[in-house]
Design a protein that fits this description.
about 180 residues; alpha+beta; Cytochrome Bc1 Complex, Chain D, domain 2; SH3 type barrels; two-stranded antiparallel sheet; about 35% helix; about 20% strand
Length: about 180
Amino acid sequence: MTAFTLNGREVWQLIAYLRAVNIAKGAEQAKGDPVKGEQVFSANGCGHCHTNGKAGGFTGPDLSEIGSHRSLAELESSILDPDADVAADYWSLRAKTKTGQTISGVRLNEDMTSFQIREASGHLRSVWKTDLASFEIVQTSPMPSFKGKISAGDLDDLIAYLASLRAQTNSEVQAK
């Protein structure tokens, strides 16, 4: 192969492209049945925390296009060991106000003087740091591990279902 020069941006674009091609092949290589996987998703209450399309909760990441962003191995790791890689967008805040009130929720934003969180109810809340007696940024996932809680077949089906949740391609959008 002939060598050619790429700048830093072009290198990252090439890496992103190769990763996207690899992830796209992942849905085809999934061992399980996506239809059964959707049933596993529902039976385990995943929709209480995760949005998929228009329905679902707000505590966890939106999974509507997760198959376009995560490899099969990453999906499996997220299910079996959710604390292994928690994006900062899903860190939570546990705090106690000076008046004794307990506050918790997903930390949406933090600046020098305040936190903005989304409570489990979906309610957005802003909290002044000066009103807090204590606070902790929790960098673990609120999602339980499913290791040993679902069968290997159900895990394969669930991964196949999640891998099938993909962003529409330009040709799919134009066909509508």
